[in-house]
Amino acid sequence: MATSSRVRSIFALPAGYAAWVFAFWTPIFLTSLVWLTLREVGQQFWQEQRYDIFPMSTLILFQFVWLLANCAAGFVAQWVGRSQRLVWIGAGLLCAYFAYNHWWALWGVMPDWYNVLVVIPVVPMVWLGGFLARR
Per residue in 16-38, is it b (16+ CB within 10 Å) or e — as a string? Predict the structure, then answer.
């Protein structure tokens, strides 16, 4: 394996994760600038660390942004690492992390439908992002 290929492989998953963070929090932050409900509940969340305070409208927004963020993670992991295997590893890691959070730690705290719909599309959306990057 060439040195540049090794370096790309090393940075692919951290870059995918950074893309996920950016693709999730940037739209949430920008939307909070114009949507008072999101701004208020966001401030309350950061002060109290309570997950049961989000109204349905914000949870629906979060669902759409989850899809975008998962796709971005797969896209960047593929683009940086140039390896479908790394995309699958990243998808597995994200899925395991979100499954633990939403099917164990937050189950009963947040609505069941939300917890289910956070986890199920992780792998397909990360794969879609990787597929788009290969095009």
Answer: bbebbeebbeebbeeebeebeeb
